[in-house]
Amino acid sequence: MDFNELAREYGTPLYVYDFDYITNRYNMLKDAFSARKSLICYAVKANSNLSVLKLLASLGAGFDCVSIGEVRRALLAGAKKYQIILSGVGKRDDELEEALKSDILMINLESEAEMYRLEDITKKLNLKARISIRVNPDVDAKTHPYISTGLNENKFGVDINTAKKMYIHAKNSAALEPVGVHFHIGSQLTNIEPIIEAAGIVSELMRELKALEIDIKFFDVGGGIGIIYQNETDISLYDYAQGILAKLGGQDVTIVCEPGRFIVGNAGYFLTSVLYEKFNKQKRFIIVDGAMNDLIRPSLYGAYHGISVVGKNTSAGACDVVGPICESGDFFAKNLNLPACESGDIIVIKSAGAYGFSMSSNYNSRARAAEVAVQDKAHRLIRKRENFEDIIALEKEFI
């Protein structure tokens, strides 16, 4: 991939996605479950570019959505409605109503209060809601606390006993049809043991539900499979799939998996241009035109991203790579050994395909970056760079 050429043609800051890599990652996961009925629902929140969604829809992917906007994106990109799941802790009434009218596969419930609210809305529309319930198995995912979701202290899901009550209520409701059970214990998981443990707990719940004649058709194991940012180890997809299948013990269900980062994380690169180097006494800074509004993960999570300077390899010592925003937290790396840089050099920030552009903002009235796809050695623009008029479009008429 010629990063200099891409920077020259499209400018910086710039997101670049390898569509061949995305295709390969989707197929790897689909193949891991090839012996059983499965549905790979891509987690739209990781990277919601319409061209990325269109590519995955063409491969047969379903979509895990956490807002009605993501449902609309998936449908616009060519997703089949019966392969879309709506999840999320705080769904508004209008979102639930639109999801029902869109006739998607199922709505994933996170609380008793949400179940009763959905039931009322469904009765009003004279429809029937296909539901799953997010069960919190109280399993420690052993990941960053901000992206751990499977413990009782987290805001997600309900405990086993509450879930049983909800399923029994749904079975006896004319407005609700319980078809799935769901869990998701966290993101960037590089140890499969917590996932397998959670699968065992939720599988046992499913057995109890089937004994009550509650016919669960979809066993949703969530997403969260990690990627290599620095020195992590890839999990074995074979062991992952076989571990889940073993916990099911022959129960006849469709396994649903909701990967996001696993598919797009290492497909993405963030390109930014060096403005200049700066020294405060002995402290060296490389100041670039990208900023925390473009890629917030280092500032938000202390996340590591591999960084290189195109065409240069010899280190000139430790430095901080920082952006133009008026925040001390505006950095991509600290105390990183990099070559001496000149104005115009291109810096590549790796593993930027997930939670990069999708978490970007207009902070400091900065226009969001352009996005480019590379596929079969060709490249094309898939989102234009914003300009100032785009930023103020929803405000201008009021001044």
TrEMBL record:
Q: Which InterPro entries match?
A: Ala_racemase/Decarboxylase_C (IPR009006), DAP_deCOOHase_LysA (IPR002986), De-COase2_C (IPR022643), De-COase2_CS (IPR022657), De-COase2_N (IPR022644), De-COase2_pyr-phos_BS (IPR022653), Orn/DAP/Arg_de-COase (IPR000183), PLP-binding_barrel (IPR029066)
Cofactor(s) recorded for this entry are:
pyridoxal 5'-phosphate
The active site is formed by 326
- Origin, by domain of life? Bacteria
What Enzyme Commission number(s) does the record list for this chain? Answer: 4.1.1.20
Name the family the entry cites: Belongs to the Orn/Lys/Arg decarboxylase class-II family. LysA subfamily.
Q: What does this protein do?
A: Specifically catalyzes the decarboxylation of meso-diaminopimelate (meso-DAP) to L-lysine.
Subunit arrangement?
Homodimer.
Q: What is this protein called?
A: Diaminopimelate decarboxylase
